[in-house]
Amino acid sequence: MTTTATERPSALHSLLAQTRQLSFWAEHAAPIGLVGLVIVFSILSPSFLTLGNIRAMLVAAAILVILAVAQAFVITTGGIDLSISATMTFGAVGFGIAWQAGLGFLPSALIAILAALIIGILNGLLIAKGKVTDFIVTLGTLSMATGLALIVSDGKPITVNSSELLTLTSGSVGPFGYPIILAAIVGLAGWFVMFRTRFGLHIQAVGGSEESAVANGVSAVKVRIAVYLICAGLAGLASLLLVARVGAAEPAINTAYLLNAIAAVVLGGVSLTGGKAKIVGPIIGALLLTALTNGLTLLGVSQFYQPLAVGLVVVLAALLTRYQKK
Protein backbone atom coordinates (compact mmCIF):
# COMPACT_ATOMS: atom_id res chain seq x y z
CA MET A 1 0.00 0.00 0.00
CA THR A 2 1.48 3.35 -1.07
CA THR A 3 1.66 6.40 1.16
CA THR A 4 -0.52 9.25 -0.05
CA ALA A 5 0.61 12.85 -0.28
CA THR A 6 -1.72 13.81 2.55
CA GLU A 7 -0.32 11.11 4.86
CA ARG A 8 3.27 12.30 4.47
CA PRO A 9 2.62 15.85 5.76
CA SER A 10 0.56 14.30 8.55
CA ALA A 11 3.56 12.21 9.68
CA LEU A 12 5.79 15.28 9.46
CA HIS A 13 3.32 17.32 11.50
CA SER A 14 3.22 14.52 14.07
CA LEU A 15 7.04 14.58 14.38
CA LEU A 16 7.08 18.37 14.69
CA ALA A 17 4.38 18.16 17.35
CA GLN A 18 6.52 15.70 19.32
CA THR A 19 9.52 18.07 19.26
CA ARG A 20 7.40 20.66 21.08
CA GLN A 21 7.07 18.30 24.03
CA LEU A 22 9.77 18.04 26.70
CA SER A 23 9.35 14.26 26.74
CA PHE A 24 10.78 14.11 23.20
CA TRP A 25 13.95 15.94 24.26
CA ALA A 26 14.21 13.85 27.42
CA GLU A 27 13.98 10.59 25.48
CA HIS A 28 16.55 11.65 22.88
CA ALA A 29 18.87 13.85 24.98
CA ALA A 30 22.02 11.83 24.23
CA PRO A 31 21.81 11.60 20.42
CA ILE A 32 20.55 15.18 20.07
CA GLY A 33 23.30 16.44 22.37
CA LEU A 34 25.97 14.43 20.54
CA VAL A 35 24.90 15.74 17.13
CA GLY A 36 24.78 19.28 18.52
CA LEU A 37 28.30 18.99 19.97
CA VAL A 38 29.68 17.57 16.72
CA ILE A 39 28.23 20.48 14.73
CA VAL A 40 29.47 23.14 17.17
CA PHE A 41 32.99 21.73 17.66
CA SER A 42 33.48 20.98 13.95
CA ILE A 43 32.74 24.66 13.23
CA LEU A 44 34.96 25.96 16.03
CA SER A 45 37.84 23.52 15.47
CA PRO A 46 38.73 22.23 11.97
CA SER A 47 40.64 19.30 13.51
CA PHE A 48 37.66 17.97 15.46
CA LEU A 49 36.23 15.84 12.64
CA THR A 50 39.54 14.61 11.27
CA LEU A 51 39.91 10.84 11.04
CA GLY A 52 42.76 10.83 13.55
CA ASN A 53 40.79 12.77 16.17
CA ILE A 54 37.66 10.66 15.68
CA ARG A 55 39.70 7.51 16.21
CA ALA A 56 41.36 9.03 19.28
CA MET A 57 37.95 9.94 20.74
CA LEU A 58 36.58 6.44 20.19
CA VAL A 59 39.63 4.86 21.84
CA ALA A 60 39.36 7.32 24.74
CA ALA A 61 35.64 6.53 25.08
CA ALA A 62 36.14 2.74 25.26
CA ILE A 63 36.63 2.55 29.03
CA LEU A 64 33.70 4.85 29.72
CA VAL A 65 31.44 2.90 27.33
CA ILE A 66 32.18 -0.34 29.21
CA LEU A 67 31.57 1.30 32.59
CA ALA A 68 28.35 2.93 31.33
CA VAL A 69 26.99 -0.44 30.16
CA ALA A 70 27.98 -1.94 33.53
CA GLN A 71 26.28 0.84 35.47
CA ALA A 72 23.16 0.60 33.27
CA PHE A 73 22.52 -2.95 34.50
CA VAL A 74 22.59 -1.83 38.14
CA ILE A 75 20.58 1.36 37.63
CA THR A 76 17.89 -0.52 35.70
CA THR A 77 17.15 -2.41 38.94
CA GLY A 78 16.81 0.92 40.75
CA GLY A 79 20.23 0.62 42.38
CA ILE A 80 23.55 2.38 41.90
CA ASP A 81 27.20 1.35 42.16
CA LEU A 82 29.39 4.11 43.57
CA SER A 83 32.32 1.70 43.84
CA ILE A 84 32.70 1.09 40.09
CA SER A 85 35.80 3.25 39.53
CA ALA A 86 37.46 1.96 42.73
CA THR A 87 36.66 -1.59 41.60
CA MET A 88 38.35 -0.86 38.27
CA THR A 89 41.38 0.54 40.13
CA PHE A 90 41.53 -2.54 42.39
CA GLY A 91 41.38 -4.77 39.31
CA ALA A 92 44.20 -2.77 37.68
CA VAL A 93 46.38 -3.17 40.77
CA GLY A 94 45.55 -6.88 40.86
CA PHE A 95 46.79 -7.12 37.28
CA GLY A 96 49.96 -5.20 38.17
CA ILE A 97 50.77 -7.37 41.19
CA ALA A 98 50.20 -10.58 39.19
CA TRP A 99 52.30 -9.30 36.30
CA GLN A 100 55.08 -8.26 38.67
CA ALA A 101 55.03 -11.80 40.07
CA GLY A 102 55.71 -13.12 36.57
CA LEU A 103 52.33 -14.75 35.91
CA GLY A 104 51.99 -13.53 32.33
CA PHE A 105 49.23 -11.59 30.59
CA LEU A 106 46.27 -14.00 30.63
CA PRO A 107 46.63 -15.13 34.29
CA SER A 108 47.13 -11.48 35.30
CA ALA A 109 44.03 -10.44 33.34
CA LEU A 110 42.03 -13.21 35.04
CA ILE A 111 43.24 -12.06 38.47
CA ALA A 112 42.24 -8.47 37.62
CA ILE A 113 38.69 -9.56 36.81
CA LEU A 114 38.50 -11.88 39.85
CA ALA A 115 39.71 -9.06 42.11
CA ALA A 116 36.94 -6.84 40.76
CA LEU A 117 34.37 -9.63 41.21
CA ILE A 118 35.24 -9.80 44.92
CA ILE A 119 33.94 -6.25 45.28
CA GLY A 120 30.92 -7.13 43.16
CA ILE A 121 29.87 -10.15 45.23
CA LEU A 122 30.31 -8.14 48.42
CA ASN A 123 28.07 -5.40 47.03
CA GLY A 124 25.47 -7.87 45.83
CA LEU A 125 25.28 -9.89 49.04
CA LEU A 126 25.10 -6.88 51.36
CA ILE A 127 22.45 -5.16 49.24
CA ALA A 128 20.33 -8.17 48.21
CA LYS A 129 20.62 -10.39 51.29
CA GLY A 130 21.71 -7.91 53.94
CA LYS A 131 19.06 -5.38 52.83
CA VAL A 132 21.52 -2.52 53.27
CA THR A 133 20.97 0.59 51.13
CA ASP A 134 22.96 0.42 47.90
CA PHE A 135 24.27 3.95 48.39
CA ILE A 136 25.81 3.09 51.77
CA VAL A 137 27.17 -0.30 50.69
CA THR A 138 28.85 0.89 47.50
CA LEU A 139 30.16 4.01 49.23
CA GLY A 140 31.74 1.70 51.78
CA THR A 141 33.20 -0.69 49.20
CA LEU A 142 34.49 2.32 47.25
CA SER A 143 36.61 3.18 50.27
CA MET A 144 37.54 -0.46 50.88
CA ALA A 145 38.65 -1.09 47.29
CA THR A 146 40.63 2.15 47.28
CA GLY A 147 42.34 1.23 50.55
CA LEU A 148 43.14 -2.31 49.40
CA ALA A 149 44.60 -1.01 46.12
CA LEU A 150 46.87 1.37 48.06
CA ILE A 151 47.89 -1.30 50.61
CA VAL A 152 48.82 -4.08 48.17
CA SER A 153 50.69 -1.66 45.88
CA ASP A 154 52.27 0.25 48.77
CA GLY A 155 50.73 3.35 47.24
CA LYS A 156 53.06 3.21 44.22
CA PRO A 157 52.26 2.75 40.52
CA ILE A 158 53.25 -0.66 39.17
CA THR A 159 54.88 -0.32 35.77
CA VAL A 160 53.70 -2.95 33.29
CA ASN A 161 55.76 -3.62 30.14
CA SER A 162 53.57 -6.09 28.31
CA SER A 163 53.58 -6.68 24.57
CA GLU A 164 49.96 -7.87 24.84
CA LEU A 165 48.91 -4.58 26.47
CA LEU A 166 50.84 -2.67 23.83
CA THR A 167 48.95 -4.57 21.15
CA LEU A 168 45.68 -3.88 22.97
CA THR A 169 46.50 -0.17 22.94
CA SER A 170 47.85 0.23 19.41
CA GLY A 171 46.44 -2.75 17.51
CA SER A 172 43.48 -2.44 15.18
CA VAL A 173 41.28 -4.21 12.67
CA GLY A 174 41.07 -1.80 9.76
CA PRO A 175 40.30 1.66 11.14
CA PHE A 176 38.97 0.28 14.44
CA GLY A 177 41.36 -0.04 17.38
CA TYR A 178 41.09 -3.01 19.73
CA PRO A 179 39.68 -0.86 22.59
CA ILE A 180 36.88 0.27 20.26
CA ILE A 181 36.16 -3.32 19.22
CA LEU A 182 36.16 -4.53 22.84
CA ALA A 183 33.76 -1.74 23.86
CA ALA A 184 31.51 -2.58 20.89
CA ILE A 185 31.44 -6.27 21.88
CA VAL A 186 30.50 -5.33 25.45
CA GLY A 187 27.77 -3.04 24.15
CA LEU A 188 26.31 -5.71 21.85
CA ALA A 189 26.50 -8.37 24.57
CA GLY A 190 24.88 -6.01 27.07
CA TRP A 191 22.06 -5.20 24.64
CA PHE A 192 21.48 -8.90 23.90
CA VAL A 193 21.38 -9.87 27.58
CA MET A 194 19.09 -7.00 28.51
CA PHE A 195 16.58 -7.29 25.68
CA ARG A 196 16.83 -10.81 24.31
CA THR A 197 17.09 -13.00 27.42
CA ARG A 198 14.78 -13.95 30.26
CA PHE A 199 17.37 -12.62 32.69
CA GLY A 200 17.17 -9.19 31.07
CA LEU A 201 13.40 -9.18 31.48
CA HIS A 202 13.86 -10.10 35.15
CA ILE A 203 16.25 -7.16 35.62
CA GLN A 204 13.65 -4.77 34.21
CA ALA A 205 10.88 -6.39 36.23
CA VAL A 206 12.79 -6.02 39.51
CA GLY A 207 13.50 -2.39 38.72
CA GLY A 208 9.91 -1.68 37.75
CA SER A 209 8.28 -3.30 40.77
CA GLU A 210 10.17 -5.76 42.94
CA GLU A 211 7.01 -6.93 44.69
CA SER A 212 5.28 -7.73 41.39
CA ALA A 213 8.41 -9.42 40.06
CA VAL A 214 8.68 -11.65 43.14
CA ALA A 215 4.96 -12.45 42.93
CA ASN A 216 5.58 -13.68 39.37
CA GLY A 217 8.38 -16.01 40.43
CA VAL A 218 11.41 -13.77 39.88
CA SER A 219 14.19 -14.08 42.46
CA ALA A 220 14.97 -10.43 43.19
CA VAL A 221 17.88 -11.46 45.43
CA LYS A 222 19.58 -13.41 42.64
CA VAL A 223 18.95 -10.65 40.10
CA ARG A 224 20.46 -7.97 42.34
CA ILE A 225 23.51 -10.08 43.14
CA ALA A 226 23.94 -10.83 39.44
CA VAL A 227 23.82 -7.20 38.27
CA TYR A 228 26.45 -6.14 40.81
CA LEU A 229 28.63 -9.05 39.67
CA ILE A 230 28.17 -8.00 36.04
CA CYS A 231 29.01 -4.42 36.93
CA ALA A 232 32.17 -5.45 38.80
CA GLY A 233 33.22 -7.93 36.13
CA LEU A 234 32.98 -5.27 33.43
CA ALA A 235 34.90 -2.87 35.68
CA GLY A 236 37.62 -5.54 35.90
CA LEU A 237 37.61 -5.82 32.11
CA ALA A 238 37.88 -2.03 31.82
CA SER A 239 40.87 -2.14 34.18
CA LEU A 240 42.85 -3.93 31.45
CA LEU A 241 42.24 -1.03 29.07
CA LEU A 242 43.16 1.39 31.86
CA VAL A 243 46.50 -0.33 32.50
CA ALA A 244 47.14 -0.54 28.75
CA ARG A 245 46.41 3.14 28.32
CA VAL A 246 48.52 4.37 31.25
CA GLY A 247 51.27 1.75 30.97
CA ALA A 248 51.05 1.11 34.70
CA ALA A 249 48.67 -0.04 37.41
CA GLU A 250 47.84 3.18 39.25
CA PRO A 251 46.50 2.67 42.81
CA ALA A 252 44.97 6.16 42.92
CA ILE A 253 41.24 6.15 42.16
CA ASN A 254 39.98 8.23 39.24
CA THR A 255 36.60 9.54 40.41
CA ALA A 256 35.94 11.08 37.00
CA TYR A 257 35.11 7.60 35.68
CA LEU A 258 32.52 7.10 38.43
CA LEU A 259 30.80 10.42 37.80
CA ASN A 260 30.96 10.11 34.02
CA ALA A 261 29.65 6.54 34.01
CA ILE A 262 26.57 7.59 35.98
CA ALA A 263 26.28 10.72 33.83
CA ALA A 264 26.36 8.65 30.63
CA VAL A 265 23.55 6.43 31.92
CA VAL A 266 21.43 9.45 32.89
CA LEU A 267 22.09 11.10 29.52
CA GLY A 268 21.19 7.83 27.86
CA GLY A 269 17.68 7.94 29.26
CA VAL A 270 17.87 5.19 31.89
CA SER A 271 15.59 6.06 34.78
CA LEU A 272 17.38 6.38 38.12
CA THR A 273 14.29 4.94 39.80
CA GLY A 274 14.69 1.71 37.82
CA GLY A 275 12.54 -0.33 35.48
CA LYS A 276 13.53 1.45 32.27
CA ALA A 277 16.40 -0.25 30.48
CA LYS A 278 18.59 1.15 27.74
CA ILE A 279 22.03 0.14 26.49
CA VAL A 280 22.49 2.16 23.31
CA GLY A 281 21.53 5.38 25.15
CA PRO A 282 24.29 5.10 27.79
CA ILE A 283 26.81 4.26 25.05
CA ILE A 284 25.84 7.43 23.16
CA GLY A 285 25.99 9.29 26.48
CA ALA A 286 29.56 8.07 26.96
CA LEU A 287 30.47 9.21 23.45
CA LEU A 288 28.85 12.59 24.12
CA LEU A 289 30.88 13.18 27.30
CA THR A 290 34.08 12.10 25.54
CA ALA A 291 33.35 14.42 22.60
CA LEU A 292 32.63 17.27 25.02
CA THR A 293 35.98 16.84 26.80
CA ASN A 294 37.86 16.39 23.54
CA GLY A 295 36.27 19.44 21.92
CA LEU A 296 37.00 21.66 24.91
CA THR A 297 40.62 20.47 24.91
CA LEU A 298 41.00 21.27 21.20
CA LEU A 299 39.62 24.76 21.86
CA GLY A 300 42.23 25.28 24.57
CA VAL A 301 39.73 25.44 27.41
CA SER A 302 41.38 24.87 30.78
CA GLN A 303 40.92 21.42 32.31
CA PHE A 304 39.53 23.17 35.38
CA TYR A 305 36.43 24.14 33.42
CA GLN A 306 35.82 20.74 31.85
CA PRO A 307 34.23 19.11 34.94
CA LEU A 308 31.99 22.18 35.20
CA ALA A 309 30.80 21.67 31.63
CA VAL A 310 30.19 17.96 32.21
CA GLY A 311 28.31 18.75 35.43
CA LEU A 312 26.04 21.24 33.69
CA VAL A 313 25.21 18.73 30.96
CA VAL A 314 24.39 16.06 33.54
CA VAL A 315 22.19 18.37 35.63
CA LEU A 316 20.27 19.35 32.50
CA ALA A 317 19.83 15.68 31.57
CA ALA A 318 18.67 14.87 35.10
CA LEU A 319 16.07 17.63 34.88
CA LEU A 320 14.86 16.28 31.54
CA THR A 321 14.38 12.78 32.99
CA ARG A 322 11.40 14.16 34.90
CA TYR A 323 9.61 14.40 31.58
CA GLN A 324 10.46 10.96 30.24
CA LYS A 325 7.57 8.78 29.17
CA LYS A 326 6.85 6.01 31.63
Give your account of this protein's structure.
It is a multi-pass membrane protein. Its main location: membrane. This is ABC transporter permease. One of its GO terms (cellular component) is plasma membrane. This protein is mainly alpha-helical and 326 residues long. It has a single domain (24-323), classed as ABC transporter involved in vitamin B12 uptake, BtuC (Orthogonal Bundle). The chain is 74% helix and 2% strand. The strands form 2 sheets. The chain has a two-stranded antiparallel ribbon with strand order 1-4. Strands 2-3 form a two-stranded antiparallel ribbon. Helix 8 (163-170) packs across helix 12 (220-246). It is globular. The relative contact order is 0.19.
Which key phrases capture this entry?
4 strands, mainly alpha, globular, 326 residues, ABC transporter permease, ABC transporter involved in vitamin B12 uptake, BtuC, 74% helix, 15 helices, single chain, two-stranded antiparallel ribbon, two-stranded antiparallel sheet, transmembrane
Overall structural domain count = 1
Low-confidence spans: pLDDT under 50, at least 5 residues? none
Number of strands: 4
Order of helices and strands: HHHHHHHEHEEHHHHEHHH
Mind describing the biggest β-sheet?
A: 2 strands, antiparallel
How are the strands ordered across the major sheet? Answer: 1-4
Any idea what the shape is? globular
**What is the average per-residue confidence, as pLDDT, rounded to a whole number?**
90
Give the CATH architecture.
Orthogonal Bundle
What gyration radius follows from the Cα positions, in whole Å?
21 Å
User: Would you state the CATH class?
Assistant: Mainly Alpha
Strand content is under 5%
- In the CATH hierarchy, the third-tier topology is known as ABC transporter involved in vitamin B12 uptake, BtuC
Structural class: mainly alpha
The count of helical stretches stands at 15
Helical fraction? over 70%
In whole angstroms, the N-to-C terminal distance is 33 Å
